[in-house]
User: Fold these one by one.
Assistant:
Number 1:
Amino acid sequence: MSRGSDAEREFLEAYEPRDYPSIAVTVDLVVLAVAQGVLHAALVRRGGHPFKGMLALPGGFVAPRESAGDAAARELAEETGLDLGGLPAHIEQLASYSDPDRDPRMRVVSVAHLVLLASDGGALPGLSAGTDAASAAWHPVHAVLESPMAFDHATILRDGLERLAGKMEYTTVAAHLLPAEFTMTQLRSVYEAVWDTQLPAGNFTRKMLPHLAATGRKTQPAVGAPAALFTAEQRHIHPPLSRRRTGPAG
């Protein structure tokens, strides 16, 4: 064993973690999905103190031998019944939140995750509250942001919305909120739900077509004309779309 290894072993044997302030780590999840043309977030109502009875993002403490990603999947299943392993979902780390006063119990740093859940625009998966959540339900994002939330969860939810809305300008990330094959109308509905605006159909189609792959298949609706089906790879949109409000489409 080298001298460097001996020195490191001696250092670690003498090291005392309790000499430093303890900091807990949590995870919080911004889970988004579109239904009936409205962007929804999976939220829980806290069953205990602090912030008892207030809306909150699903989440909780990271266990000593657990990664933040594993904790996120576990907490989401425990608090809402959603199983990331069995759902068509895209998950990515959003940001860390470390304000010293964000949690009144102790110093807590949260690693937030953004989860995009695919749906056909109809009904969303049912939620079932567990652990310390009194209830779990889907809430319209743009409306709930006007209400108070526990901890700094309104800020985290707003940041998650902004991350998604911004990336939709220059990538095809919106496809993660849709089935593997989708119509142009379904894709435009996602953009309108996230951006909280209406987009001219013809202009949207013209800008998006070069960035999608046509399947050659069409929907077979009971009423109305068939619509072409597309798929999307994770790719950049150039030139990027504009998020400015356009008003009602004519």
Note: The helical segments are 3-14, 68-80, 141-144, 153-170, 184-195, 201-208.
Number 2:
Amino acid sequence: MDVHLYFSLIPEALIASNLPPEKFGQYYATGSGYKSKGQSLFFEVDPTFRSEHFEIDTAIARCVPADDGTPKHSVYIAVYRVLEHLPIAALGKLYLTTAYGHTLGLERGELPAETDQGLHLYQDLVPVNSLVVSNLEPNAFYRSVTVNPAKFIQFPGLFFVELELGELATDPENGKAGDLPYPFIHHLREALMTLKPATGEQPSPKDSKMVHRVHSLDFPYRMVRKGFYVGNGADVAFYPMLSHKELRDKHAQWWRSAGL
């Protein structure tokens, strides 16, 4: 039976499994009676990937079906400092699984051009789970906490997603919250108001502000703006989120399962 390698983001872990991506997502999100349940995100990793930091071959040797043929669901290889030792080139599709176990695969795409003038809301998932507002575009935000840190905070790599702000992106004080599902709108407005959109002529004195130091890892998939970013050092990859229309038309079951 085949052995797959997965890089889980909720929580951070490198895992071997006999399950293909869709079945692994269902297992990982809905689990068994003793396992906590919830949405999950994970990458499929190149099965030929090996590193001195991970005992992959040992895990693969243990990843064997039971005597009755039941596939081995998971063998944990590492649960700490996985991203920094995982080259971006080894990452395949990114899978998004709902709390009900329906899984959607996203292909890697081109990094989007940095053209926005408004403010941004970023949710970091690995190696930290914090919520940050910033006047920096995603690529600049990534560099500011990794390869070119503007402050004392520095990470070897980062996985994060940009979330929608609606009118608050350009008018945090008076913009309508509309259907933004965040329960901390007042606090979010205050954080955004400490920032000003940066321009080439007049850089902002403060480019980012922490909203929550430790934030819930779950977030509404419908609020994903553009897509997901993952980087290790100078290497960054982007996984664009499908449009709501494409999700409704081509992935209706996942769409309904995600409550969109």
Note: The helical segments are 21-30, 56-62, 138-145, 185-193, 244-250, 252-257.
